[in-house]
Design a protein that fits this description.
With 145 residues, the chain is an alpha+beta fold. The chain folds into two domains: 1-21 and 120-145; 33-115. It is built from four helices and five strands, in the order ααβββαββα. A hairpin with a 2-residue loop joins β4 (95-101) and β5. α1 (2-20) runs antiparallel to α4 (121-137). The longest helix is centred in the N-terminal third of the chain and has 19 residues, at 2-20.
């Protein structure tokens, strides 16, 4: 039972950390400054999840844009995945709406790629539930030693 309890607690912590990885998105939406960037390069890409071509891991197909924005008197590079409509609009205009953090303009992303502020919440909530179940609900002691 000790092994199960430890496993559940550790799983909960790791899941919560994975949810917090989306904190960058939240920071951009809450504190991000909108800007218009100059498009440098656009590609239709297929990104493999594994370095091994024979892997069964799924790949991601989508539209990749690299850009440059002017922030704090400097040119700051950026890149990211966007939807087809954003990709096509950027192709026509050569411009892309982005958001960046004024304190650190290197943290930036295409505005259309941000998603919801809530994206990390399911993982954080599930991690908290697992942690609580492992720490308080499962019996202590006994089991594997």
């Amino acid at each position: 039972m000790r092994f199960l309890r430890t496993f559940v607690v550790v799983s909960g912590v790791l899941m919560a950390i994975a949810g917090l990885a989306d904190w960058r998105t939240v920071r951009l939406q809450v504190s991000g400054q909108p800007a218009e960037a100059r498009v440098l390069r656009q590609e239709h890409r297929i990104a493999q999840a594994s370095a091994h071509p024979e892997s069964d891991l799924p790949s991601r197909e989508g539209y990749w844009i690299s850009y440059e924005l002017e922030a704090a008197g400097a040119r700051v590079p950026g890149e990211g995945w966007v939807e087809l409509a954003v990709f096509e609009a950027a192709q026509k205009t050569g411009k892309l709406a982005v958001r960046y953090l004024p304190k650190d303009p290197t943290i930036n992303a295409p505005a259309a790629s941000e998603g919801g502020w809530w994206r990390g919440l399911p993982a954080i909530a599930a991690g908290a539930v697992l942690f609580a179940a492992g720490y308080w609900a499962l019996p202590r002691g006994g089991g594997l030693r």
